[in-house]
Write a structure and sequence with these properties.
Distance between the termini: 39 Å
Helix content: 10-25%
Structural class: alpha+beta
Strand content: 35-45%
Radius of gyration: 19 Å
Strand order of the largest sheet: 17-22-18-19-20-21
Number of helices: 7
Order of helices and strands: EEHHEEEEEEEEEEEEHEEHHEEHEEEHE
Length: 308
């Protein structure tokens, strides 16, 4: 068993327990993983059950490092360190198929990183064959630059990505801090993408996975879940909202527990990933049930000139 490992599948879904995956989920449990085929095979009911039956916790992208706590019958109990959670102070907990984990990347101090900025891009072998599809925000250490391709370090060894599909950063998270408007623009690229409970990739986001990922794309690493996101950042009065602020919604007309997060779009609108059966959308808040449930706003982005 490895104490540290790295995801060696395009997207690894993190399940609540080894018993959480159903026969219909088989395409998401293999390596290579077949996320599109998996999602296409789900009915509304079987997709909804991922949430209602608490089957999925989160997702982890290719090359992302995890801590392995134990291994049992082909499953690994892991912690995702860069997805902060009140569930475990070390990071987000859950289970992944062991076949989707490989050796942890040996990162050289001072290396730059290629962060995928396209919705998807191909990971290419040395003989120029596409090996797998990488999602938006996949981050890999750069070994060398070769014209329109970058050689990157992966759990599978040296591979290549198109320079035009990535952003080169001095760290594994974007080193350019975006504005609130930049967070909104990042989100606009995913309009009409179907909601996926636990989703953290271009194949589908849940509400907090969407806010987490759009903030991360702009250099801000925030907690993974809506309830935790509502406790950090800077509190913003609801009459002083700016684009890029996170909006939180609670049951009992805003007095109960937080169940949803959206990104303020400006002009009384929000952009969000609503729930199973719906897609990422921009809506006017006034006149919807969200208006009654809106209970708080937090700002994670910084104005130019603010102390970082």
């Amino acid at each position: 068993m490895r104490e540290k490992a790295a995801v060696n599948a395009g997207v690894a879904t993190v399940w609540t327990s080894p018993d959480s995956a159903r026969d219909i989920d088989a395409p998401a449990l293999t390596n290579p993983v077949y996320i599109t085929e998996w999602l296409d095979s789900l009915t509304h009911e079987t997709r909804l059950a991922l949430c209602d039956e608490n089957r999925i916790q989160t997702q982890v992208l290719f090359g992302q490092e995890v801590l392995v706590l134990e291994e049992r019958e082909g499953w690994s109990h892991i912690i995702v360190p860069d997805q902060a959670s009140s569930k475990d102070k070390r990071g987000y907990p859950g289970w992944v198929p062991s076949v989707q984990l490989g050796e942890s990347n040996a990162l050289t101090e001072g290396n730059s990183f290629a962060i995928v900025k396209a919705e998807f891009t191909d990971l290419v072998t040395e003989d120029d064959k596409g090996e797998m599809v990488l999602s938006f925000l996949t981050s890999l250490s750069i070994e060398k630059e070769e014209g329109d391709q970058l050689a990157v370090s992966t759990p599978l060894g040296t591979r290549y990505v198109k320079r035009e599909d990535v952003y080169i950063s001095s760290s594994a998270v974007s080193d350019q801090k975006g504005s609130g408007l930049d967070i909104v623009r990042s989100g606009e690229a995913f309009l009409d993408l179907p909601y996926l409970w636990g989703g953290m990739s271009s194949y589908g986001f849940d509400c907090s996975g969407f806010s987490y990922s759009m903030c991360k794309a702009n250099g801000y690493v925030i907690p993974r879940d809506a309830g935790d996101q509502a406790k950090e950042g800077k509190g913003v009065p609801l009459d002083e909202l700016k684009p890029g602020d996170l909006l939180f919604f609670a049951y009992e007309e805003g007095k109960g527990s937080i169940h949803h997060v959206a990104i303020y779009y400006g002009d009384g609108k929000m952009i969000h990933s609503p729930n199973t059966g719906k897609t990422i959308e921009i809506i006017t808040i006034k006149g919807t049930y969200y208006e009654k449930e809106l209970c708080a706003a937090r700002r994670y982005w910084q104005d130019a000139g603010d102390a970082s």
